[in-house]
Specification:
mainly alpha; 1 helix
């Protein structure tokens, strides 16, 4: 029945899992909103901005086992 089909689509829609070798996305603008949490696990992560890179949180933690490097023309702490 149609109601049974709608129920299956809702169940499938709750979990979307994609397994691929590579995903490339090119956009002019992108916005992603997650109301609870967002996790990324990767061998390496490279974030670059031509302008301002802004990281903000009630608590922000940067941890490294070997080295943390901060390099800039001016560095303001506090």
């Amino acid at each position: 029945s149609a109601m049974s089909h709608i129920g299956r689509v809702r169940t499938i829609g709750r979990t979307v899992e994609t397994v691929v070798d590579r995903i490339l996305t090119r956009t002019k603008r992108s916005l992603r909103i997650s109301e609870e949490s967002d996790h990324v696990r990767a061998g390496q992560i490279d974030l670059r901005a031509n302008g301002t890179f802004h990281a903000n949180g009630e608590t922000t933690i940067v941890t490294a086992a070997t080295l943390v490097k901060v390099d800039g023309g001016q560095i303001h702490l506090g």
